[in-house]
Every structure is written in C-alpha cells, then in structure tokens.
Task: structure prediction
Amino acid sequence: MAYRLPPLSSMRLFEAAGRHLSFKAAAEDLNITPSAISHGVQTLEDWLGVELFVRGNRSLGLTEAGAVYLPQVQAALELLARATETVPGRKPTGRLAVSVPPTFGMRWLLPRLRRFNERHPRIEVTVDSSQRRVEFSRDGIDIAIRMGRGEWNGLHATCLVRERLVPVCTPALAASIRSVDDLRRATLLHVTRAAEDWAAWGGLAGIDLSATTGGLRFDTIQMALEAAVAGIGVTLGRLPLVEQDFAAGRLVPVLGPPLVCATGYWLVMQRETVTRPEVSAFRRWIDSELKEADEGAACAGPQGSSADFSSRALKGSRLPKRRTAAHAGAMKKSLRARSRS
Result:
C-alpha cells in the first residue's frame, strides 16, 4: 500500500516558516525567495485542505492545526536525515560543514585550515561561525567545535584540549606589572560571556581579586584580546588562542605560567556521522594539529578521548583537574614572592 504523503519539499518549507514564524527569515535560512516559501506552504495547505498559518499584515502565526502539525513534521524530517546518515556503504559526499565559535575560528582554525586543504584537496569545507544554537541535521552541520565541559546531551563528543589561562598584555604594559598588587591596579579587561574569566584564574592561582573594581567588559574574547593588543589593559590569554600573539610579540604573559582550567575544546557531532569519511579525516587532522599542546592541557585519557553522552551521564559532568598540588603550590609561592618584591 502506497504512503499518502504531501510533497517533501513543501514540508521542508513549512518547517522553516513555522520555526521562524516568518517567510522572509525562512527564505534566508534555505537560501530561496520568500515567494517560494509562500507558494510551497500554500501547496501544502491545499494538499491538506486546512490552513497552517494565520497571516497578518506584518505578522505570521500558526493555526491550531499548524501548531499540532509542526513538531511532527520536524521529528519526521530529523528521522529522515539521521536515516540517510546511517545508510551502509554510502559513498563520500566530498563536503564537510564545520561550526566553530568566532574567536576560535579566526585565531586558531583559519591559520591552519590551509594544511587540511593540502592534505584533503577533494573535501570542500564550509565554516559556520555564527553564535546561534546549531541543530546538526536541520542546519546541515556535520561537526562542531565547542568550548565546555562535555555537556552535550545525546551527542558524540571528543575532548581535544583543555583551556589554559594566563594574564596577557603588551610588552610595554608588562614592564609595569611585576606583582599581584600591580595587576590589581591595572585596567582589567573582562569577557562577560566566558565561563572562565578573572575569578576562575584567581581561584586557580590562589589570588583574591574580589576587591578589584573597574576595568572594561566585552561580550567576546576577540574584542578583549584586541583591546589588550591596543594597550588598553590586561586580559586573560586563553591558550591555544593566543599562541600567534605570543609568537608575533603582540602580547606577552605576565604572572605566569598558564594554568589549566576546567573547560576545554570539544569536537561534537551526531553519533550517526562519526564514521563518515569526511568527518574521520577532519578528526584525525585536528588531533594531529593539537598534539603539540602542553601535556598538562591534554584531556583525561589519551589525546582525543571521546564519549557518547546521555542525559544521565551529563549530570554533573566535569573535566578532571590535571594540575598537581605541587604545581599549584609553586604557582602561589611564586606570586607571593613577586608581590613582596
């Protein structure tokens, strides 16, 4: 018995329009015209014999039928996308879509991406650096690089390297920062959206920065680093993001050494895509690029250790601290000595 189904293309258009509640936004999402969205939705409504949207002059809303139908269509499209990924013997597509945080993409991935292209010239890479929440199948994303502690429900996540923090500034400004008291008097540059910032570094270094006031606040790591390069103040350098700034002499560490924190960079993907040739190639390449990371910044277990996370496993999930008590004690002793000098 044949399935009685509406045109699949019209269901995709309806899903996008229902998700955005805007024909224009749906058109931008799918890279077609708003008129094509409108006609496709009308085709689906005619096939069903019921209106799915309430159309206003400047608004779009779901009817009762549309509100019931939308989540079921979304689940069906997701199921089709996942089934497609798991077809045995599927030939390589030659395409790879990677989602990265903007600062990581600009400062770490972009300077190295040429080496991936040289090694895999037949793989066409698309880099998405938008800060929106990514839905892998719906957004056409194959793999994502994320900063965190492994809290990705139902996805396959591979810890690449842990973040290391150290105060950084221009060489000229560094000459005036020889102690913790000097740091407290300096202009500190904060990142409001960062999970680990000055309070986290102070906790790792055994320094109380709670009395420090003022400074400047930015919503991105990139802006804080650019402000530091401009000589405005001291920000937290986040390795491996500032490696090139150190090499070029734009920034230098003060009151080091870098301290390993709880967060790290993770490679995140759907379980169905783990064995795809393009994904496997990218995983091997990025592992090789990060093998030169300091031993203390390696994730628990072998470099690139991975796990499939379920909602139960994610509760309270944390990366174990690798910094030894001796290292912490030496750091605190060094900083106290500088403070007295």
